[in-house]
Specification:
Layout lengths: L1 E5 L15 H11 L3 E5 L12 H14 L2 E6 L9 H21 L3 E4 L7 E2 L4 E2 L1 H11 L4 H22 L2 E5 L8 H11 L4 E4 L10 H11 L3 E6 L16 H11 L5 E4 L7 E2 L2 E2 L2 H21 L1
Parallel strand pairs: 1-2, 1-10, 2-3, 3-4, 4-7, 7-8, 8-9, 9-10
Antiparallel strand pairs: 5-6, 11-12
Helix pairs in contact: 1-2, 3-5, 7-8
């Protein structure tokens, strides 16, 4: 398994301070010992409107020179809207991300069924406003209707992925998906060789050892991408401590023969110190320690 850095960590959304450029993210990944970078598919990083073919070639060249693999593009898509115009705009967005991934020679595009979004209010990120809006517009529709909108959209995008030589990785992310069984159900219904799975342990509703192991076995060879997160501190003995479920997950991934990426993401509201949200140095420290922690864990398990 390889350790990657998901660029959302440096999007300038959660910490106080500016976003890094993708070139700067690549340099951070090189400096902290990551194997690759996953590009977040929105501004200021990887919105396809800003990624014509020439820009993709330049970025790929920069990454190759740094010894960093661009291994995934992350979509922030919502195929669940009851409004057809919204669903159709999301299909255009995903088709363009897939095009971008092909030009970057990236193998995988991470997708959601539904993503309520994130807002900047008044200056830093928050989830609650978008989640409330998503809930309101879905109140008049059944879960079955929402599922069918998602299935149809994902099947169409899987065709685009096949044409571009790209694999879609469906993440086990709420709100439409509740657990890994929903991911596998959708993958089965779409039934495309261009749709696989991104099982992330931090967002599993049940992180008991038995459920983690069962989920890994159920996903099996469909697993092509994963993420880890959290905040890290160095302990008195010099070690870096992570959540108790990560060793179990790594063991389970090894048991199914997974050898892809585990990408670190810092994408939650961060601590406030003396009335101010922490700055980019907090992201730097956590990115550095997370890489050290996960590399050590992969070796040890």
């Amino acid at each position: 398994m390889k350790v990657g850095l998901y660029s959302i960590t440096y999007l300038g959304l959660w910490y106080r301070g500016k976003a890094l450029t993708l070139e700067e993210v690549i340099e951070r990944a090189r400096r902290y010992g990551y194997d690759g970078v996953e590009i977040d598919g929105k501004r200021p990083h990887g919105n396809p409107l800003d990624m014509p073919r020439r820009r993709c070639r330049e970025l790929r060249s920069r990454a190759e020179s740094a010894g960093i693999e661009l291994y995934s593009v992350a979509a922030n898509n919502d195929l669940s809207s009851p409004i057809p115009e919204v669903r159709e705009s999301q299909l255009v967005y995903l088709r363009e991300l897939i095009r971008m991934a092909g030009e970057l020679r990236v193998k995988t595009v991470r997708v959601f069924l539904a993503w309520p979004g994130v807002t900047r209010h008044p200056q830093l990120g928050r989830y609650d406003l978008a989640r409330g809006f998503w809930k309101t517009i879905h109140e008049s529709f059944s879960p079955e209707e929402t599922w069918e909108w998602c299935r149809g959209g994902l099947a169409e995008c899987a065709r685009y992925a096949g044409e571009a030589g790209v694999i879609l990785a469906l993440q086990n992310h709420a709100p439409v998906i509740q657990d890994h069984q929903d991911v596998l159900r959708m993958a089965g219904e779409v039934n495309s060789p261009h749709l696989r799975v991104c099982l992330d342990v931090p967002i599993m509703p049940d992180k008991s050892p038995a459920v983690i192991q069962a989920a890994a076995r159920a996903v099996g060879p469909l697993q092509v991408l994963s993420h880890f997160g959290g905040e890290y501190r160095r302990q008195a003995d010099g070690s870096v401590q992570g959540e108790a479920f990560y060793p179990i997950f790594i063991q389970a991934m090894k048991a199914i023969g997974y050898n892809g990426y585990l990408g670190f993401e810092l994408c939650h509201p961060l601590p406030v110190v003396n009335g101010q949200t922490v700055g980019i140095e907090f992201a730097d420290e956590n990115a550095r320690l997370a890489a050290e922690y996960m590399r050590g864990l992969i070796r040890a398990c």
